[in-house]
């Protein structure tokens, strides 16, 4: 990559006698007034200017940025690195392995398929909570994890050996986002490159990243600009393709005041989530500023940054300051790196100076002293409920899930305990996910609350499945040092694994007798988890209502045993003297929480736990690992199969065609998330995926989860749109992955219907409502849609990541006219659809609208102009090529490489 340096910004920064090449922002007038995030993007453009992908006009566009204007200028952002977790990362490596073969078939060198930017994967999404509440739970769950995932892990070890610039953090280490902030993030990146005169130099520039998980934004708390992208975009970034984006609007969010006693960082982030969702920040960057920033601990910044996808924003970033440096020092970064971070950011105007306020597109403010204890649910993270209103809110919502308010159901537990289950009973209480387990303030608070509860004689209710799945081994270290594990274990919150467990749907099965009672009596039971996602059908197939809460509140709900509970007026139990014990009696004092943190957490914990983080344990090291520049596929594997996306690919483009005679595969409402679309969670025996596995001799107990089988497209296509809570409005009163097959008039699984349509040569469309595709950055939500034969999705609005992923798979994202919807246009999904105007793309023109004609069976037509949501020239190139990976592959085969 050649830098043209039009603005003569190339300079040398001396840090303690060591020279670094940098590209100075003050060389361009106008950049100094920009928000922090846009300054990072400006440096990226200065450093990568090549006259083709990145031009001087792009830099000028940032320098003259109008904060009030709607985004209309496309730039090319080149992230410093790519971060992955294994659910979304395995398909990336499958695609790279397949691309190596495809390049060879096109006459190229397979070894051109290598990550050009550092790519790091943390295996954290595969641990399931099969065992809980026992000292042996950690080891048992780890053993089962390796039994289930040996094929995947062998494949990843092959990738680590065969692919340059690719490193894997083995299972049992922690959650990707927590490992990222505690160890992988550089904050200021360095690399060896050629200087202006061709001599080798060390270049320094801001650490930036994209990740295959939407919560990549957690690293924003460290001042690192990064966000989640689909796996297909991440693969392209690894292969040197810049991320195409419009210069975004930036929302300035001022924090003031201090969190009051009784409230936690989780309550803060749920409050911010509600505020920003209501304000509307989709496609925007949120940036925190003002005097109050210095009072926000790094862990709280990371907790807030983590929830950016729940706001809907691209990123939610804090600038770098002394708090950042203190955290880098605590987590074991070298003094040389810390000095570079300080000197570089000060030299570039990236150091936080509260006396100088950047210009922002919009402004919001939160006085932290107004935050109150909260939960969110029962199905969206932005639906915050003040804890004091939680019982009333539950009672108000229950009728939408259950026909009657109470349904007492006697159950005999496995140990003989007789209990009565009812609607609202807490079936799962889990301290889990990156959002909170990275934050010592809430984790220590949970441990102290457990200690206080045990001292009062309280215990978790026997029907609650309890668990603690920390985001890194450091949590275990400070729990042990503070002596908090015994009380947690006494309440059943034993260590079950290090990874993204309950929050991703790996909660494991409920105890058999509880599950049977729930299903037989159709009970509406709930989960309470310290995660960031609580979408329908995500946590556990037996659980209909899911609530997000801070770790101490997770324990409180385990003690209460039901969501139908008022903590202010109802006791959790009685102490040894028979006196009522209320939540206020056991809630830890914030000063004690801080005292425990100060006394227990130190730098040595981080340096020890991350000393050899890529080595793994004996299980990992003992895996039989294939070798070779290309992977030898096992045709009998049900975990890893060669991807079909490049079958028959030629160097010539296949012309874009209009859509004629399409049928509706699914008619969907508002807030359909990628959890509804993408395969996730357990694989049911009677599902198309279950039948596929059974036909290949896989026992039911070995089905594992959809996430673990993301490397097998045959499983994933069968699980697309198969969420048990999906409501396809083509059918009345039916939930799950079903549709009406208009070829036969019968109700069938979406997969079976799609196969019939494709065999008959009938293209498909999906109709959606507002916020279509919100949720995690799941590549299979788009890959599965494409493989089902869907040519276009017509929705009222799209979430950012899923829209770009659809384009990346050659599916057209189209938007109803403003203010219109399927319902307002009188469409019920029984029509036959035609879309004209897409062929303009063959002439290098991206149409702003296309004409959609829906013909009813009686011959009547509904015609409207749909907006084409292919927003940038780069996206148009991807679509013309049939997808982003096909675009990149053709370029690499021609010898084009950035």
Q: Short summary of the structure?
A:
Its cofactor is [4Fe-4S] cluster. One of its GO terms (molecular function) is RNA binding. With 898 residues, the chain is an alpha/beta fold.
Describe what this molecule looks like in 3D:
Helices cover 32% and strands 18% of the residues. It is globular. It has 898 residues and is of the alpha/beta class. The protein folds into five domains: 10-66, no CATH class; 81-370, Aconitase, domain 3 (2-Layer Sandwich); 378-609, Aconitase, domain 3 (2-Layer Sandwich); 659-678 and 727-880, Alpha-Beta Barrel (Aconitase, domain 4); 680-719, no CATH class. Strands 26-29-30-31-34-33-32 form a seven-stranded mixed beta barrel. The mean pLDDT is 94.
Helix content: 25-40%
Main CATH class of the largest domain:
Alpha Beta
Strand content: 15-25%
What's the domain count? 5
What's the pLDDT, averaged over the residues?
Answer: 94
Contiguous uncertain segments of 5+ residues: none
Structural class: alpha/beta
**Helix segment count?**
30
Strand adjacency order, main sheet: 26-29-30-31-34-33-32
Helices and strands in order, then pairings?
Elements: E1 10-15, E2 18-23, H1 36-48, H2 56-63, E3 74-77, E4 81-85, H3 86-105, E5 119-122, H4 137-162, E6 166-169, H5 176-184, E7 188-194, E8 200-206, E9 208-211, E10 225-228, H6 231-238, E11 243-246, E12 250-256, H7 265-279, E13 285-289, H8 298-306, H9 308-311, E14 315-317, H10 322-330, H11 335-347, E15 362-367, E16 374-376, E17 384-386, H12 390-397, E18 409-412, E19 418-421, E20 426-432, H13 434-437, H14 440-455, E21 465-469, H15 473-482, H16 485-490, H17 512-520, E22 526-529, E23 545-548, H18 551-560, E24 573-574, E25 580-581, H19 583-586, H20 590-600, H21 603-609, H22 618-621, E26 659-667, H23 674-677, H24 688-695, H25 713-719, E27 738-741, E28 746-749, H26 750-759, E29 764-767, H27 779-787, E30 790-795, H28 800-808, E31 812-815, E32 832-836, E33 849-855, E34 861-868, H29 873-880, H30 884-893
Parallel strand pairs: 4-5, 4-9, 5-6, 9-10, 12-13, 12-15, 13-14, 20-21, 20-22, 22-23, 26-29, 29-30, 30-31
Antiparallel strand pairs: 1-2, 3-11, 7-8, 16-17, 18-19, 24-25, 26-32, 27-28, 31-34, 32-33, 33-34
Helix pairs in contact: 1-2, 3-6, 3-30, 10-11, 14-18, 14-20, 15-20, 24-25, 25-27, 27-28, 29-30
Enzyme class: lyase
EC number: 4.2.1.3
Domain Aconitase/3-isopropylmalate dehydratase large subunit alpha/beta/alpha: 71-561
């Amino acid at each position: 990559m050649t830098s043209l340096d039009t603005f003569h910004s190339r300079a040398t920064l001396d840090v303690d006698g060591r020279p670094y090449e940098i590209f100075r922002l003050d060389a361009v007038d106008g950049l100094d007034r920009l928000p922090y995030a846009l300054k990072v993007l400006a440096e990226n453009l200065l450093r990568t200017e090549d006259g083709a992908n990145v031009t001087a006009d792009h830099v000028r566009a940032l320098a003259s940025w109008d904060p009030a204007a709607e985004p209309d200028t496309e730039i090319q952002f080149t992230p410093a690195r790519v971060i992955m977790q294994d659910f979304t990362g395995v398909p990336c490596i499958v695609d790279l392995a397949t691309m190596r073969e495809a390049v060879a078939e096109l006459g190229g060198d397979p070894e051109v398929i290598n990550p050009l930017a550092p790519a790091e994967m943390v295996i954290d999404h595969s641990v399931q909570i099969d065992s809980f509440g026992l000292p042996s739970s950690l080891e048992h769950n780890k053993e089962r994890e390796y039994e289930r995932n040996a094929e995947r892990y062998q494949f990843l070890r092959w990738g680590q050996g065969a692919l340059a610039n690719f490193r894997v953090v083995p299972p049992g280490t922690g959650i990707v986002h927590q490992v990222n902030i505690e160890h992988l993030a550089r904050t200021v990146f360095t690399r060896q490159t050629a200087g202006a005169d061709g001599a080798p130099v060390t270049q320094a520039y801001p650490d930036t990243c994209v990740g295959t998980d939407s919560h990549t934004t957690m690293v924003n708390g460290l001042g690192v600009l990064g966000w989640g992208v689909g796996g297909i975009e991440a693969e392209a970034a690894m292969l040197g393709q810049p991320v195409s984006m419009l210069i975004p609007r930036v929302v300035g969010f001022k924090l003031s005041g201090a969190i009051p006693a009784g409230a936690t960082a989780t309550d803060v982030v749920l409050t911010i989530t509600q505020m920003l969702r209501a304000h509307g920040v989709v496609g925007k960057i949120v940036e925190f500023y003002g005097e109050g920033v210095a009072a926000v601990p790094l862990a709280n910044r990371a907790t807030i940054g983590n929830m950016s996808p729940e706001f809907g924003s691209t990123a939610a970033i804090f600038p770098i300051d002394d708090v950042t440096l203190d955290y880098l020092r605590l987590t074991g970064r070298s003094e040389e790196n810390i000095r570079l971070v300080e000197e570089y950011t000060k030299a570039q105007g990236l150091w936080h100076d509260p006396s100088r306020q950047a210009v922002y597109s919009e402004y919001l403010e939160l006085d932290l002293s107004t935050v109150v204890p909260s939960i969110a649910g029962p199905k969206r993270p932005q639906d915050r409920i003040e804890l004091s209103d939680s019982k009333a809110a539950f009672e108000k919502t229950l009728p939408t899930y259950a026909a009657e308010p109470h349904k007492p159901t006697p159950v005999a537990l496995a140990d003989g305990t007789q209990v009565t289950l009812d609607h609202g009973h807490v079936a799962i209480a889990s301290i889990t996910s990156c959002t909170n387990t990275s934050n010592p303030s809430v984790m220590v608070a949970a441990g102290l609350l457990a200690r206080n509860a045990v001292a009062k004689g309280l215990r978790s209710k026997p029907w609650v499945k309890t668990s603690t799945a920390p985001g890194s081994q450091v949590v275990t270290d400070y729990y042990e040092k503070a002596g908090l594990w015994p009380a947690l274990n006494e309440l059943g919150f034993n260590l079950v694994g290090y990874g993204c467990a309950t929050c991703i749907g790996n909660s494991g099965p409920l105890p058999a007798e509880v599950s049977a009672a729930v299903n037989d009596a159709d009970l509406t039971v709930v989960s309470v988890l310290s995660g960031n996602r609580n979408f329908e059908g995500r946590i556990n197939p037996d659980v209909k209502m899911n609530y997000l809460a801070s770790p101490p509140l997770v324990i409180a709900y385990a003690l209460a045993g039901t969501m139908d509970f008022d903590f202010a007026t109802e006791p959790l139990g009685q102490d040894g003297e028979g006196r009522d014990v209320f939540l206020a009696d056991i809630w830890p004092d914030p000063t004690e929480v801080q005292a425990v943190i100060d006394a227990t957490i130190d730098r040595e914990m981080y340096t020890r736990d991350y000393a050899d983080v890529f080595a793994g344990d004996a299980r990992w090291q003992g895996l039989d690992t294939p070798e070779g520049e290309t992977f030898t596929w096992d045709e009998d594997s049900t975990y890893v199969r060669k991807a079909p996306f490049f079958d028959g690919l030629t160097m010539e483009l296949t012309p874009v065609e209009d859509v004629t005679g399409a049928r509706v595969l699914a008619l969907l409402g508002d807030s359909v998330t990628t959890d509804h679309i993408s395969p996730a969670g357990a694989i049911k025996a009677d599902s198309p995926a279950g039948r596929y596995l059974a036909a290949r001799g896989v026992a039911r107990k070995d089905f594992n989860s959809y996430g673990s089988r993301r490397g097998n497209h045959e499983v994933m296509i069968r699980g697309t749109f198969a969420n048990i809570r999906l409501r396809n409005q083509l059918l009345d009163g039916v939930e799950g992955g079903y549709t009406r097959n208009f070829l036969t008039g019968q109700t069938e699984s979406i997969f079976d219907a799609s196969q019939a349509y494709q065999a008959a040569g009938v293209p498909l469309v999906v109709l959606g409502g507002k916020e279509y595709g919100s949720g995690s950055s799941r590549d299979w939500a788009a890959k599965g849609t494409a493989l089902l034969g869907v040519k276009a999705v017509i929705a009222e609005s799209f979430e950012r990541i899923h829209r770009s992923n659809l384009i990346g798979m050659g599916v057209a994202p189209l938007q109803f006219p403003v203010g219109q919807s399927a319902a307002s246009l009188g469409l019920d999904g029984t029509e036959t659809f035609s879309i004209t105007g897409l062929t303009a793309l063959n002439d290098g023109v991206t149409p702003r609208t296309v004409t959609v004609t829906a013909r009813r069976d009686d011959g009547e037509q509904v015609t409207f102009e749909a907006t084409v949501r292919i927003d940038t020239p780069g996206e148009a190139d991807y679509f013309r090529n049939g997808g982003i990976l096909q675009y990149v592959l053709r370029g690499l085969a021609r010898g084009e490489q950035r």
